[in-house]
Amino acid sequence: MASTDHEERPERPSEADGTTHLFSALGKQIKALREHAGMSQRELGKVAHCGEALISSMERGVRTPQPEFLIRVDGPLDARGALAAAADDVREAQAKSRTRHPDWYRGYASMEAQAVELHHYCNQTVHGLLQTEDYARAVFTYRRPLLDDATIEKRVSDRLARQQIFEHWPSPALTYVLEEVALQRPIGGRAVHEAQLRHLLRMGCKRNVELYVLPTDREEHPNLDSAFNLLTPKGKQQVAYTEAQGHPRLITDPEEVRLIADRYGSMRGLALNPRESLALIEKMLGER
């Protein structure tokens, strides 16, 4: 979502407790072992049942190697137990990162980690959980006022780290209502935009993810306002989260949450269904 220099954003957990050095070191070790084994990132991805881009992100310290990943690749990389031994340290670091948020954000972060359902309305850009690394970098690069390079990379890393929610099991149910105009905006240029659309097609094929594109030509719209998130933590009531011009708001009042959920349901009803939405994205790619 949008942000300003004076926004109330959560500090990156690894910046606060130093675990960023652990993740960076693990990434370098994975790269060194992979190269020593004569494997490409694509080949390691096949062994680990993940994508080449994820391997690249982990080696650069942008994404956190999951404990299960470290255990799975220890043998193929001939690490002799060194990577598997780090799994417990990574679990501990991840536990810390889920709690080291400032007061204003801690409640939302905790609930998101426990969420069984997540619903998102996106009116300006593709939602952060669905963004590719290059798309996210373009979002932070072109914003005003300008951010320095180090801050941009930290913001990108933060955003990609949150996408680990797709690796949770059991998987939460995720739905997205995306304005058609948000998909048409070529943020980052032609190549970045095309890669982002292809990524949406892949994400939309996941069993627990549904994409609904709201066409621009609809004559009615129940929410000509800001983007928002709706989430349901396990065993708790649904809450809403909004952020406008750097000002975040966690909404817990049941009646206010109900009204936002009602608007979301109306927009989903006006949108194309998931099959039609993916077909529209494919059409956008074909017209390029």
Quaternary organisation: single chain
C-alpha termini separation: 27 Å
State mean pLDDT (0 to 100 scale). 86
Low-pLDDT sequence parts: 1-17, 98-102
> What is the count of helical runs?
14
Proportion of residues in helical segments: 40-55%
- Beta fraction: 5-15%
Coarse shape: globular
How do the SSEs run, as a string of H and E?
Answer: HHHHHHHHEHHEHHEEEEHH
Q: Strand arrangement, largest sheet?
A: 3-2-1-4-5-6
Gyration radius, rounded:
20 Å
Total number of beta strands: 6
**Largest sheet properties:** 6 strands, mixed
Q: Which structural class should the secondary elements be placed in?
A: alpha/beta
List the helices and strands and how they pair.
Layout: H1 13-17, H2 19-36, H3 41-48, H4 52-59, H5 67-74, H6 82-85, H7 87-97, H8 103-113, E1 115-122, H9 133-142, H10 149-162, E2 173-179, H11 180-184, H12 190-204, E3 209-214, E4 228-233, E5 239-244, E6 247-251, H13 254-270, H14 274-286
Parallel strand pairs: 1-2, 2-3
Antiparallel strand pairs: 1-4, 4-5, 5-6
Helix pairs in contact: 3-4, 5-7, 9-10, 12-14
Description:
- The structure is a single chain.
- It is globular, with a radius of gyration of 20 Å.
- The protein has helices spanning 13-17, 19-36, 41-48, 52-59, 67-74, 82-85, 87-97, 103-113, 133-142, 149-162, 180-184, 190-204, 254-270, 274-286, and strands spanning 115-122, 173-179, 209-214, 228-233, 239-244, 247-251.
- By secondary structure, it is an alpha/beta fold.
- A six-stranded mixed β-sheet has the order 3-2-1-4-5-6, with helices on both faces.
- Helix 3 crosses helix 4 (52-59) and helix 9 (133-142) crosses helix 10.
- The chain contains 14 helices and six strands.
- Strand 4 (228-233) and strand 5 form a beta hairpin.
- Mean pLDDT is 86; it is low at 1-17 and 98-102.
